Amino acid sequence: MNDIKKAAEIILNSKKTMALTGAGISTESGIPDFRSSSGYYSKMDPVKSLSKDVLLNDPKRFYSEGFLILNDLYNKEPNKGHFALAKLEELGKLSGIITQNIDNLHIKAGNKKVYEVHGESRNVHCMSCNRVYPFSVMKEKVEKKEIPPLCDACGGILRPNVVMFGDMMPNDFLKAQQQIANTELLIVVGSSLQVSPVNYLPSYVDKLIIINNDKTPFDRDAELVFHESAGEILTEIVEEVEKELK
Ligand code: NAD
Predict the structure, then answer these.
(1) Which one of 21, 83, 123, 203 has the largest count of C-beta atoms within 10 Å of its C-beta?
(2) Domains of the chain (ranges, CATH numbers)
């Protein structure tokens, strides 16, 4: 039996399956990841430019470097990896996605149960009065060189709804941990599994399938590892699951 068939069989026999996704599932949508050789780390240090400390103390740097990362996500479209996971949920074989991504692409692809544990880039909010604005409002202000961009209502500083280095984890992370507690199989897609605390989640499940171009620290614990591109592999696995269900 080849590995695609084996993966489909593990999914079909699993009592509850979740996916954990990272930046690698979205590189095929034209969004760079952090740690590949062409990722953001090759140009800047995201820990410094996308941190709360820099936002508060060096807004110019935040809005010239960190903001570029957010701007790169704007109006991107899901790829076949995202659509395959949406199909798996539709088939009743995926209970939800825990994503580290902030690009909104799982929701755009049609997944209903998405836990955005590093926040999202649809909206921004005022740090003083908490008023929420669409991301496009911040984008327009930054492009007009209004740095830092300010709240029209109270003059406070606007910030993205993404979890930055130095921020607390959001409520979705708590929900994700609750979901993982009774999950049998976790399909990890496009994550180096180097960002904590999300990288603890794979140790709480019985079975892992890992789809990632590079090696991860959890490869040796997995039932199956695909060091290949996510879009094609996920499509093949989900097609196989669908075939078996017919
Ligand atoms: P990472 O950059 O640390 O790791 C990405 C992994 O994906 C790498 O190991 C790489 O080999 C693999 N990869 C790249 N393209 C792939 C493909 N087509 N198929 C299979 N594997 C592929 O990313 P991470 O683990 O998600 O952690 C970094 C942080 O980056 C997260 O907190 C996330 O919020 C943030 N981030 C998000 C986006 C996004 O929303 N799209 C983009 C960049 C960074």
Answers:
(1) 21
(2) 1-31+78-118+168-246 (3.40.50.1220), 32-75+123-162 (3.30.1600.10)
